[in-house]
Give the backbone structure.
Amino acid sequence: MRRIINRKPDRHLSLFLALLPFMLLLVAYVVSSEIRLAENPGDKLLPGLEKFSAAIDRLAFQADKRTGNYLLWSDTLASLRRLAGGVLASTVIGALCGVSIGLIPLVRAGLSPLVAVVSMTPPLAILPILFIVFGLGELSKVVLIIIGIAPFLIRDVALRVQELPSEQLIKAQTLGANSWQLALRVVLPQIWPRLIDSVRLSLGPAWLFLIAAEAVASQSGLGYRIFLLRRYLAMDSILPYVAWITLMAYLFDYALRRMQIKLFPWFANERGH
Amino acid sequence: MSTVSIKNVWKEYAGQVILEQLNLEVPEQSFVSIVGPSGCGKSTFLRMLLSQEKPSRGEILIDGQPLAEEPSAERGVVFQRYSVFPHLTVAQNAALGIEFERAPWLGKLFGQKKRQALEEAEHFLEAVGLVEARDKYPSALSGGMQQRLAIAQALIKKPQILLLDEPFGALDPGIRADMHELMLNLWQESKMTIFLVTHDLREAFLLGTRLITFDRLRQNAEEVGYYGATITYDVPLQASDPIKQQAEVFEAISGLAGPNIDSSKPSRRDDPVVNVTVVN
């Protein structure tokens, strides 16, 4: 009998083991749902699977009677616009500020303590201030995402820049680079793939802030819809929404990972060492 | 093509003396090998020549002029590791110095100018035998190829002084022998002044026109912080010196067993132990 640490699953077993927990969760849900429905056919807490398909059909494929919108899609569009705005702005801020802080000692001395303090402020505690300052419109939601994840991205990029071997910076100087060229040709190109990693890590928090902002004050969006449906205990709609959000978050993560491999082939090899 | 004068240079860190009383006159076209025990300040000395660090006392002059305050193009460098840029291909790495010079704003050339720069870089890649690998990333190169690239990259700026910080330390003996030959050829063609820090005595004898050892004269534990290392031996080397010929013989032996210059796979042989005694 080999030690368990030496037993590696082959491809089929890996797939099976990966799917197993999902299957078990599904079975557990269906069984619990059956038990509850047997006792009370009107139970709303764990609706049966057919209820889900009905709800999905209603939300995704039939126009809402009041607004004429297909709710799932209009909510998704509203949320994704906020998310994309917040994440893209944060990425740009993270790259610019992070590289400046990591590369230029004078900027680091000036900005690094500020960023460290700001990143400790709980973003949700600032949400009321954002509503007061930016109103209840789109801007305050985007700004919440930026405040939530930009400080993390800045600090992470700054650390990655400082991790670059000092030999590289010296070498570039002996090749005649000025600071600007060095940032443009040596530092930034090596930061992009690392920035993708940081963005992947901050997508979770970004969704959190988005849904929190939508739950508090919004007229549309996935977070708004979930919290609205909560009033009617509409689990048959909430659970598909949550699954849809999770699926999108997972796909973004996957897409970013593929993009990193595709755009920065040298990075994957470098990491393989 | 430059003389280097080191005048009473000291280096201290936080009150600890690392190097003291360094005095050295290096005529042009010298190849100075620097050896010494670990932690004796060899690399610190090289960093001072690079302007990566400043001497605490004393001064370093190149052709009678004080050293520039920061690293600059007239002093090239090859480190033991991290000397090439992992995100650029071999050709891009080699052409980088040209691009910095001709594209002050973007640091990047396009179109015709870019082709021209790559063409010029190609000559240097030829000199180090890397033309075939021009489109590869450094991670796909062996250790020896990466170092050859680092050398080509440095040479493209035509530095007057080339600083080598244990550049061949991580390479196995066969490849190291090839690198020695390459280095000597490049040095003879370019007439640079070269400083080589190494812990391989044989290499130091083989390559240098002059061998310098750094060591602490006082070894007592309680005196360590107060007295730094200094130059203990300064040995001129001529091609006819027996020690040099001996080193060449050893080199030939280790070279015989090794692959020739284009070895893309790192071999796994151990470095043969060679006993070379210094006679003063």
Notes: The first strand of chain B starts at residue 4 and ends at 13.
